[in-house]
Amino acid sequence: MWKVIIVDDEVLVRRGLASTIPWAQYGMQVAGDFSNGMKALEAMELLRPDVVITDIRMPQMDGLTLLKELRKQYPETIPVILSCHNDFEYAKEAISLGAVDYLVKTTMDDQEVDRTLSKVQAKLAERKSVDELLRQIEQSKRLERQAELRMILAGGENVGAKEPSVAVKEAHRTENECFLLLAARPWAPAHTQPLYTNCLRLEERFPEETELFCTLDAEPYMVVLLWFPSALSALEVQHKVQIWSGRLLQLFGCRREELFIGAAPPFSSISQAKPAFEQAKRGQEAYFYDEGVKTFYMIEGSAALQEASGVLFTGEDKQLWVEALVRNAVPEARALFEQLTKRWRPGVSSAAVKEMASSMIGMIRFARHKHQPSLPATAVQELQQMGKLSQVKQLVSSELAVWEQEAEGSSGLNSLRPEIQKALAYIQQHLHDEVKMSDVADHVHLSRSHFSALFKQAVGKTFLEYMMEQKMEWTKEQLKHTHKKIYEIASEIGFSDYKYFTRCFKEYSGMTPKDWREQHVHKSEYAVLPIREEQAL
C-alpha cells in the first residue's frame, strides 16, 4: 500500500478526507495527518510517505514552502495541493514545484478526487517501473563486480596488466592507496548454503564501490575486499578487521566458533588479491596471533577470529598455582605448569593464552618478591609479539626456572608457616575484592589477633599495609600497561570512592595516578597494546 499524509490546519478537513475517500481502492492508506507544514516535514523521515496532500495557507509553514522542502529533501514524494483558492498563480507555482494536481476544497467532488488520485496512481506506477529498472541495473553491476573479483582471485589472465575498472572509481584512486582482504568460511554446512544470498545482502547493505564482495564456486568462502585511500597502521587494520568480523557474524547469524574469518595484511595493488586470499585462508587454519580483544592480527601473517572455548585459567587454578609457588613446592609447581599449558591447544584464542601467561608470570614474581611488580615495557612487547605457542610457553618456563633456583636455594621462604603461605595466596587470589583481615584469618583457621601478630612477624608489615601495597602495585601495572581509564582501574581493584583511591595512591607513590601514568608511560609503549572492542567499534 502506498502511504499518504494529509496536511491542513483544519482538523475537520483532515478527518473528512481520511474517512470519506476510499483510499484502499487506489492502493493507498493514510499514514498520518498534520496541522501545518513544519510538523509534516518533521514526520517525513519517520513515515516516508509516497504522497503528500497539503493545504496552502497554514501557520508556521505554508503548503508552498513545504513543497519546496519536499522537492529538496524528498524528491521522490508526490505532492497534491488542496486549497480554498481557485487561483491560477497558486496552481502555477504548485505545479512548478512538482504537484501533480490542484484540488479546490469548495468545488471538488467524487469525480475530481478520482481523477486526481488516478493521476497519482499513474505517477506511482511509473516511479515503481523506474525503481525496478534501476534495481536491475544495480544488480547487474553487482554481479559484474562479483565476477571480476572471482576472476582476480582465480588468477585470471591480464589481471596484473590493468586494474579492474569496477573495483574503485578512477576518481577515488590515490597514490598511497591500499587494500584489505577478508575471507569467511562457515564451519557448519547449514551456514554454507546461503553464502551467495548473504553476499547479495552485503552488497545491498554496503553498496560503496570501495567495498567488494563475492563467493567462490569451488570453495565455500565469502571474500570481502576493501579499498582505502591511504596506508593503514597495524592498529587501524585491527580496527577494520574487528568491524567487518562483527558484520559477517551478524550476517550469518552464527556463533563465533561457527564462522572462521581470516584477513591478510594490507597490500597496495588489487592484482595482489590472489596471494592475499591464500594468506587469509591460512589465517583461518591457524589459531595463534597477536590480536585485539576479539580479533586476531599478526604482523607477519594473517588475521583470524575465533572464540576461546571455556575459561583457561579458573579461580581454582590460580589458587593452586599461587599456593604451590609461595610454598616453594618445586615439583608440584612444575607438574602444574605442564598440566595447565596443555590447554594451550589449536582453536584457543591467543589473547586468552597471553593473558593466562601474563597472570602466571605475575604470580611467579609475586612468590619471588612478595609483591606484584609491573612488567617492563620490553617484556610486555615481547609477549604481545609472540606468534607461536612454543614461544609463550618458553617465556613462562624461563620465569619458572628462575623461581625454582631461588626456591631450592632459599631457606627464608621455606620457614614461613603454612598458615601465612596460605594467607598470601588467598590475598593474591582476592586482591580485587574487599578482603578483611577476619576473612583471611578464618580462611587459615586462626583467631584475628593471632593471625595479625603472625602476619606482621612473617611479612614485616601489618595486614592493611600489605593489602594497600598490593593494590597500589597492581594499579601501577594497569596504569603503565593498559589504556584503561583511571576510574575503571579504581573500580576493578575494589575502590568505590574515586577521590579516596586517588588519595591512597598519592600517599603510596607521592603523586596522583594521572601524574604517575604521564611520568612512567611513553607513547611508544602503547603501540604494543591490543585494541579493546569498545574502543575499536
UniProtKB/TrEMBL annotation:
<dbReference type="InterPro" id="IPR011006">
    <property type="entry name" value="CheY-like_superfamily"/>
</dbReference>
<keyword id="KW-0597">Phosphoprotein</keyword>
<dbReference type="InterPro" id="IPR001789">
    <property type="entry name" value="Sig_transdc_resp-reg_receiver"/>
</dbReference>
<dbReference type="InterPro" id="IPR018062">
    <property type="entry name" value="HTH_AraC-typ_CS"/>
</dbReference>
<dbReference type="GO" id="GO:0043565">
    <property type="term" value="F:sequence-specific DNA binding"/>
</dbReference>
<dbReference type="InterPro" id="IPR009057">
    <property type="entry name" value="Homeodomain-like_sf"/>
</dbReference>
<dbReference type="InterPro" id="IPR020449">
    <property type="entry name" value="Tscrpt_reg_AraC-type_HTH"/>
</dbReference>
<dbReference type="InterPro" id="IPR018060">
    <property type="entry name" value="HTH_AraC"/>
</dbReference>
<feature type="modified residue" description="4-aspartylphosphate">
    <location>
        <position position="55"/>
    </location>
</feature>
<keyword id="KW-0963">Cytoplasm</keyword>
<keyword id="KW-0804">Transcription</keyword>
<feature type="domain" description="HTH araC/xylS-type">
    <location>
        <begin position="421"/>
        <end position="519"/>
    </location>
</feature>
<dbReference type="GO" id="GO:0000160">
    <property type="term" value="P:phosphorelay signal transduction system"/>
</dbReference>
<protein>
    <submittedName>
        <fullName>Two-component system response regulator</fullName>
    </submittedName>
</protein>
<dbReference type="GO" id="GO:0005737">
    <property type="term" value="C:cytoplasm"/>
</dbReference>
<keyword id="KW-0902">Two-component regulatory system</keyword>
<dbReference type="Pfam" id="PF12833">
    <property type="entry name" value="HTH_18"/>
</dbReference>
<dbReference type="GO" id="GO:0003700">
    <property type="term" value="F:DNA-binding transcription factor activity"/>
</dbReference>
<keyword id="KW-0238">DNA-binding</keyword>
<feature type="domain" description="Response regulatory">
    <location>
        <begin position="3"/>
        <end position="120"/>
    </location>
</feature>
<dbReference type="Pfam" id="PF00072">
    <property type="entry name" value="Response_reg"/>
</dbReference>
<keyword id="KW-0805">Transcription regulation</keyword>
<dbReference type="InterPro" id="IPR051552">
    <property type="entry name" value="HptR"/>
</dbReference>
